[in-house]
Amino acid sequence: MMNRMDSGGEAKLRYLDGDFEIVRPGAFVRCVVTGESIAIDALRYWSVDRQEPYVDAAAALKRELECHPELTRGR
């Protein structure tokens, strides 16, 4: 089994439902919203459809609303 942190650089992942597959080993990925590094072992939020990682739930929601502005109508 491959260690999720085989390399100290940025990893490339394929995001799946409830898990992810390591395409290129590394220690972290970057949040698409904030640009912050996310340690692979701390990664909890991502989009399967957009194949993007997020640092936290707030970043994931922000990105969802950016991609689907119709969700904010009527506020």
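Second entry:
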Amino acid sequence: MTKQLSDKDIENTLSMDAERRYSYLRKEVVANREIWILVDDHGCVMLNTEDEDCVPVWPNREFAEMWANGEWEECRAESIALNKWHSRWTMGLEDDELAIVVFPNTENDGLILYPDEFDQDLKKQARKTG
């Protein structure tokens, strides 16, 4: 079971730039063995850039839930086990030609990665901490 984040932890993490949030996400995902997305009755939430359709991912429930407001207030945070991510999601996202936006903050700022690149970074993090 993952520990609940304090308000101070959340505030400090959200103040990081996109690269540091990505580093934080890799460590949290590998340590907790889960990735968080937002879903509704039609599937997972998508963000769009000029070039890419993206699935946003977060390292912890609290960060995903922060996005469940406004047009997404009907959404709920859902975790995906890391081994399920590796075995199903990476290939599925590639097949659907979707990218990943990693840990977007409330200003929609987040790194955009291709699924295979994200998958390799998570595996590299696991080897580093394993």
